[in-house]
TrEMBL record:
Gene3D superfamilies linked: Aspartate Aminotransferase, domain 1, Type I PLP-dependent aspartate aminotransferase-like (Major domain)
SUPFAM superfamilies assigned to the protein according to its UniProt record, in alphabetical order: PLP-dependent transferases (SSF53383)
UniProt keywords, alphabetically: Pyridoxal phosphate
Family according to the record: Belongs to the DegT/DnrJ/EryC1 family.
Coiled coil: none
CDD domains: AHBA_syn
Metal-binding in keyword set: no
Gene responsible for this protein: kdnA
InterPro entries referenced in this protein's UniProt entry, alphabetically: DegT/StrS_aminotransferase, PyrdxlP-dep_Trfase, PyrdxlP-dep_Trfase_major, PyrdxlP-dep_Trfase_small
Pfam family of the protein (one): DegT_DnrJ_EryC1
Organism: Paenibacillus cisolokensis
Protein name stated in the entry: 8-amino-3,8-dideoxy-alpha-D-manno-octulosonate transaminase
Amino acid sequence: MTAMDSKLAIDGGAAARSKPLPPNYPGASVIGAEEAERAARVLQAQSPFRYYGIDMQHAVRTLEEMMSAELGIPYALGVTSCTAALVVALKALGIGYGDKVIVPANTFLATPGAVVASHAVPVFADVDDSLNLDPDDLERVLDDEVKAIIAVPILGNPVDMDPIMAFAKRHGLRVIEDVAQSCGATYKGRYAGTIGDIGVFSFQMNKILTAGEGGAVVTSDPLLFERAVRYHDQGLFREQARYGIASPEEEHAFLGQNYRMSELTGAVLVEQWKKLGDIVSRMRANCAAIREAVAAGLPGLKFRRSADPAGDIGSNLGMVLPSAAQAGRFIEALNAENITAHLLYGGRPVYMMPQLFRQRTAERSGFPFDYPFRRPVVYREDMCPRAVDLMARTVYMPVSPLLDSRDAGEIADGIVKVGRSLGL
């Protein structure tokens, strides 16, 4: 790198890249004629509803069968969103008013929001240096009112599930995997979402696969699956014969909601699902090449740890800076080099969102926070100190499946250039 090359773009130097990185929409970036053609078939068949129509195309069923086969899990259910999937999963587990659910401090608002929508209350566990749920912090937030744990692999990085599952087994807790950001991630050879009692997926716009919106619930438990199906479809179970299940309405039915996936969404996702392996392999290769080059050029830079590096989908490169102030300068300088970088969720734990922190809901009574818990649920800004510390100084750079080797080289050179200038 020459002296001229080393001058930061933010200071008037030449940018490491002549154009910005592709937008951070992995699935959307590979949408093509296939998705359009399959969606058109649904429209031409005049049958956009999944359970009946004029000329059924069975797109949602096809998606569910593809997911089940690839994930190696017997039951998959398409729903309207991952938030809906979380609510369906919680209700399948019987979670409700008077229950607490452990949620990681580093997650999107939808995770604790779904707990509240299910009439339960989230309690927050800290993260470890993977920025995922810290198994060693579970004991701190456990009491006899806690009924479940939600594990969230953030930005493609698998959660350390073995100790979480062992903890849950010791204490009689259920485990939900919220795989919204990490479709295709694995942990010790098993797909994320298939390890806990029930898993949920997102197909929203910026996810690994997308139809703009959409979600799915997966499980190996036939009882949980039946309850999930019923809750997502007003208490009905229309396809019992498909699963070889005979479940009388008068015995097993209960009131539910409408979270049914449309055939249009299913059609797009059938074609998206076919592309998952290619998307993940490209991101993994790009991320590995960038990380290796950056590590060689900045040997003192710390990267986000992974509980299973082989299972990380490589959708984001996480770099841990020595301080929040340095992280801010690093981000500003990288973006000037046309290398997208950011703090996740503004660098703050989710419980600091005002609606959560102040326990505000649409209900005048503050329901479900008004439940008289024996151990009151109180949120404090410093209650998860590692999340407070690490989230404010972990810089993420999204890795697109559209990158080529030249892009990877330019990105790595730009990160090294900025890092050296800042003395990292």
